[in-house]
Amino acid sequence: MSASSNTNWDRRTVLRAAMGLAAAGGLAACGGNTGRSSSGDTLVQMFHAYGEAGTEQAIKRYAKAYKEANVTTQWITSADFESKLFSSLLTDNAPDLFEFHPQIQMVKSGQVADLTDIIDPVKDDFNPADIKSHTVDGKIYGVRMIDDPQFFFYRKSMLEKAKVEVPTTLDELMEAAAKLTTGKVKGLYMGNDLHSVNDTLIWSAGAQHLDEKNQIAYHTDGVVEGLKKMRQLFTSGDLLLGAPTESWDPSSFNQGLCAIQFCGMWAMPAIQDALGDDWGVFPFPKVTDSGKQSVYNGGWSMFVNAKGKNVDAAKEYVKWLWIDQKEYQEDWATSYGFHIPPRASLAESATKLKSGNAAEGVRLFNEFGHFDNIGWTQAMRTAFEDVFANCVRKNMDPEKALDRCDTAVNRELKKLFG
Amino acid sequence: MSTTTPRDLARPASAKASPAKPRRGLRGSSTFNFWLFTGPFLIGLAIFVYAPILWSLWLSFFEARFTVTPDKFIGFDNYTYMLTNDDFVGSLGTFTVFAAFIVPTTWALSLGLALLVNRMRFMRAFFRSVFFLPTAVSYVAASLIWKMSIFSGVRFGLMNTVLGWFGIDNIAWLIDPNPPWYWLVIVTARLWLQAGFFMILFIAALQNIPDELYEAAAIDGAKPGWQTFRYITLPQLRATSTAVILLLLIAAYQAFDEFYNLLSKTTWGRPPLVELYYKALGESQDYGAGSAGALILTVLICAVTLLQGKIMGFGRGDESK
């Protein structure tokens, strides 16, 4: 080997050459065909884990059928879907589209894209209440996928045996729970933290969360009375507490741990399988004479991440799946759990919802249903959950608990509306 | 005798290349070696620890809702809000109760286990492993076992089944705060998870106590058992005990997993980290208030740790033993 070759390939030269190659590689990657898809071809959607078997496969099957983009699905199985969604929306790994409930804070902070242009042509076919609950300043910010009425499920045979009529007032519900409680069966289950009935208690007491001017409307005598009755119920020994699954899961009802359970219409197929026809549904009873029975019309909507890199492609996908593909929408609403399609044309044609308890669920939805108020944000929801925790479960004076809630809600209202 | 041998002539050249002189070039540079080995860790520390702390400090002075790049400066409002927030202040009380339960019980249990295992003459390794193994279980998994299997509120929960044998009604361990049975669930879960780890520390300390001390005490008439433990073993474990209590206290401040998983959606039993998660960072996305709360907590932890170290003489040296 010559002396000159030794000089050329000393370690400094090798280092320089390696760095040069690395730099050249980096520059080369900046342009030309790298073999990757262009930016609009890949979309990420985020869903919370539905409990009904087959739902994850269904969502992925719909996505696979879409030819204009490669849509991948994040199926979040933990209970804190909201936290994961919100924190990921701040990062570069945010989903391009996601399901959630209409909330004005997402609109005000520019997190969700305006979808008016894709919904407008079919706006009249949507449930008007769903359109209203997604509208801010005349713009529509989400496409409703499913409506989920929530009410009480009861075992007909147990009520007959105990000679109990279907309750229409909160007092009657408490009496029924007492009569239905036996050694192994509790009369009533409303979830371990009771938060499932927060909203229905407000409506059944004749109140609202916020009024038309976005001011507090839940702090009424009726709600205070309802909270006191809920405390009575909580301490009565007639309430199932500490069940392994929460109220969204019908297992406690199906396994005979309780005679009445608050749950959603999605659970109907599973309950039918477990109990046959030995069950019925009824709305949350009225709390006071001035109140009215109520049903919470929950549900899920698709939103497009306005800060994402593929807003237009995401909107195209939302339009394709949740506006154009009626077959998939009906499949999603009725093939797993039961949900009411937000499109009037679909709701009318969904044969599985036309008879039996499903039809009764639709009737309760139409007659007693209340929809989400877009101005009632997650932070306000949490503040009212604290009212239940403090005064129903911990025995704080309801007025004091509501005062604390008012402080938190007013802070939110001030930030949102000035 | 010649004084100019070739060997003598070679000496200056040899002295020139004396190994006592630092070699030139990067490989011989101790500074380079220092940066080579510590650099990556320092970079990691700067990116993942110091930068977030500084960013958090910056966020705490802004209206940072739904964003971590805010532009509305609000001064100390977030600090005022957190310090006047009943739930945040209450969470410090929860921590105090939790620390009062968990620190002495874990200290006593781990020391007791260490004394038992250390004295064993057979199957010592087996029992060490048995007590240490729960350390490898995640807090989330342990919480779910405690919640759904042992302390489930229905009749087929393990504890309720046992109570049923004595004719006692089912107890909703985690749902009803009156009486606060949830503390039993939380404290037993954490005891099971961490006592084994601290047992190992105490075993190591026990093995460092010279046998001569016990022999001398025996000659002086000390009775084996409590007297020896009280006047020989315990003082010799002072440094380890101080370290264990310090670690337990810091771990109590950092408590999150079991509280979050066992007591979802309550307003009680929320230690500071759970409170910050719920009120500021999780669903509310109020990163400004969350950052302010986190910094208040950091200052508090530093102050308590320094105070505790001072009171217990941590780091005073051998003379303090």
Topology (SSEs and partners):
The complex is a heterodimer of chains A (418) and B (321).
Chain A: H1 3-8, H2 11-30, E1 42-48, H3 55-65, E2 70-76, H4 81-88, E3 97-100, H5 104-108, H6 116-119, H7 128-133, E4 135-136, E5 139-140, E6 143-154, H8 156-161, H9 170-180, E7 186-189, H10 198-204, H11 221-235, H12 251-254, E8 258-264, H13 268-275, E9 280-282, E10 295-304, H14 311-324, H15 326-334, H16 344-349, H17 356-368, E11 369-370, H18 378-393, H19 398-417
Parallel strand pairs in A: 1-2, 1-3, 7-8, 10-11
Antiparallel strand pairs in A: 3-10, 4-5, 6-8, 6-9, 6-10
Chain B: H1 6-16, H2 30-59, H3 77-83, H4 86-119, H5 124-132, H6 139-150, H7 158-165, H8 182-207, H9 211-219, H10 226-236, H11 238-253, H12 257-262, H13 272-281, H14 287-312
Taken as a percent bin, the fraction of beta residues of chain B is: under 5%
Number of E-type strands of chain B: 0
CATH superfamily of chain B: MetI-like
Q: Which two chains touch over the largest interface? A: A-B, 37 and 36 residues
So, CATH architecture of the largest domain in chain A? 3-Layer(aba) Sandwich
What is the name of the CATH architecture of chain B? Answer: Orthogonal Bundle
Low-pLDDT residue spans of chain B = 1-18
Kindly describe this structure.
The complex is a heterodimer of chains A (418) and B (321). Chain A folds into 2 domains: 42-148 and 298-370, Periplasmic binding protein-like II (D-Maltodextrin-Binding Protein, domain 2, 3-Layer(aba) Sandwich); 151-295, Periplasmic binding protein-like II (D-Maltodextrin-Binding Protein, domain 2, 3-Layer(aba) Sandwich), CATH 3.40.190.10. Helices cover 45% and strands 14% of the residues of chain A. Chain A has 19 helices and 11 strands. In chain A, helix 11 crosses helix 18 (378-393). The radius of gyration of chain A is 26 Å and the shape is globular. The N and C termini of chain A lie far apart (81 Å). Chain B is mainly α. Chain B has one domain (85-312): Orthogonal Bundle (MetI-like fold). Chain B contains 14 helices and no strands. Chain B has helices at 6-16, 30-59, 77-83, 86-119, 124-132, 139-150, 158-165, 182-207, 211-219, 226-236, 238-253, 257-262, 272-281, 287-312. The N and C termini of chain B lie far apart (66 Å). In chain B, 28% of the residues are buried. Residues 1-18 of chain B have low confidence and may be disordered. The A-B interface holds A 79-80, 82-83, 86-87, 89-90, 105-106, 109, 111, 184, 192-193, 195, 234, 237, 240-244, 257, 378-379, 381-382, 385-386, 389-390, 393-395, 404, 415 and B 63, 65-68, 86-87, 148, 152-155, 157, 169-178, 264-268, 277-278, 281-286.
